[in-house]
Amino acid sequence: MIKIWGRTDSSNVQKVLWCMGELGLPFDRQDWGGKFGGNKDHDYLAMNPNGLVPTMKDGDFILWESNSIMRYLNAKHGGGRLLPATPEGMANANRWMDWQLSVLNPSIVPLFWNLIRTPEEKRDPKIVQNALDKTRAAWQMVENQLAQRAFVAGENLSLGDIPLGVWAYRWFNLPIERPRLPNLENWYERLKERKPYQTHIMIPMT
Length: 206
Ligand SMILES: N[C@@H](CCC(=O)N[C@@H](CS)C(=O)NCC(=O)O)C(=O)O
Prior knowledge:
Radius of gyration: 17 Å
Low-confidence stretches: none
Distance between the termini: 28 Å
Structural class: alpha+beta
Helix content: 40-55%
Bound molecules: glutathione
Shape: globular
Order of helices and strands: EHEHEEHHHHHH
Number of helices: 8
Strand content: 5-15%
Largest sheet: 4 strands, mixed
Oligomer: single chain
């Protein structure tokens, strides 16, 4: 049984849970990190020196970094079906996974932290505005990508959609003004129809 350490409200844990849901993989998850703690314990740090969640164990194989865990699970237990078969298609999906880490995350995380995890009187309007501007620009890129295809790397859901879809749920539920991005909205509607998305992503934001 694949083992996962990580709390269910972590965006990075959610990626892995959604991925396992798409692949139909059973798993044994333990609440870890955040209010549950445990992530700075000696034994945990021996598995994941970052002291972050998620961590995965499959047999004797231990892995951290959510995007790498998804790539591993898809290759090892999913027959690669969550990535397009061609090198170009695969690179495209991988590119959006990397882009989530390098561009979308630094834009949207400060917005999420200020609006959801910071008491109103302590919020910094400058950080919020700056994050909002950057996040709108980031989603506009996804909007353009989705003009020609149902999902970011083609007509089927791929690993490229998962890191973006986790944050799309937060984006569409934050108390902010959003520009009209019809392709992004239609893609988000398609994600919301998926059972693993409903189970692992569409939960209260904390
Ligand atoms: N790049 C890592 C980032 C992991 C990460 O930042 N995890 C956060 C939760 S989203 C964490 O462990 N925070 C500390 C905690 O939960 O106690 C990944 O994608 O797995």
